[in-house]
Amino acid sequence: MQFRPWWLLAAMPVVVLAFARIGSAQADGAMPIPASESFASDNARAMDRMMSAMSVPPSGDTDRDFVATMVPHHQGAIDMALAELHFGKDETLRRMAQEIIVEQKQEIEAMRLAANRLATSTPVSSASADVCRSRSMSQSTHDLLVQEGH
Questions:
Q1: What is the Cα–Cα distance from 19 to 27, expressed in whole angstroms?
Q2: Nearest Cα to 149, choosing from 109, 119, 105, 92?
Q3: Measured in Å, how far apart are the chain's first and last C-alpha atoms?
Q4: Is 150 in contact with 109 (CB distance < 8 Å)?
Q5: Residue 130: exposed, middle, or buried by beta-carbon count in 10 A (0-12, 13-18, 19+)?
Q6: Sites in the chain below the pLDDT cut of 70
Q7: Do residues 128 and 116 lie in contact, with contact meaning Cβ atoms separated by under 8 Å?
Q8: How many whole angstroms from its chain centre is CA 11?
Q9: Residue 116 CB neighbours (<10 A)
Q10: pLDDT for the residue numbered 126
């Protein structure tokens, strides 16, 4: 008697369909994605990096300390927004994530320019500080970038 694994051939379509369903369920978010490839994992890494980078000893200069802590805070927001773009599906939230990335990068640049200006001891006039307080952050950022020649 010759052994013929007919049951393997008969079971093959069932196995293929099962793996196809598992793959599509993972893609649809119905099944968990491995932790190494998840929003939660990326978000936790971003938070850890941000919190670590924000832990700077006070220098005694409020402005410098503000920049030293806010730049990593903004970078953390960028990293979290990138995770949303990578894993998120809601178009409104994805659009917000894109806006966060653009705005936070601009604000980081403005803070770094201000920090560089502080290092050279060029004060900002109180009039321009009043303008910054009376406008939205993105407008203030724009003004600082224009003021610095960018």
A1: 12
A2: 109
A3: 85
A4: yes
A5: exposed
A6: 1-36, 122-150
A7: no
A8: 45
A9: 12
A10: 46
C-alpha atoms less than 13 angstroms from C-alpha of 6 in its C-beta half-sphere:
3
Asked if 59 contacts 68 with a C-beta cutoff of 8 angstroms, the reply is: yes
Residues 18-28 have pLDDT tens digits of 444 444 444 55
Cα atoms in the 13 Å half-sphere on the side-chain side of 122: 8
For the chain, give the secondary structure using H, E and C: CCCCCHHHHHHHHHHHHHHHHHHHHHHCCCCCCCHHHCHHHHHHHHHHHHHHHHCCCCCCCHHHHHHHHHHHHHHHHHHHHHHHHHHCCCHHHHHHHHHHHHHHHHHHHHHHHHHHHHHCCCCCCHHHHHHHHHCCHHHHHHHHHHHCCC
CB contact burial 30-69 (16+ within 10 A = b; e otherwise): eeeeeeeeeeeebbeebeeebeeeeeeeeeeeeebeebbb
For tokens 């013929």, the residue is 4
For residues 76 and 46, the answer to whether their CB atoms sit within 8 Å is: yes
Q: How far apart are CA 33 and CA 43, in angstroms?
A: 14
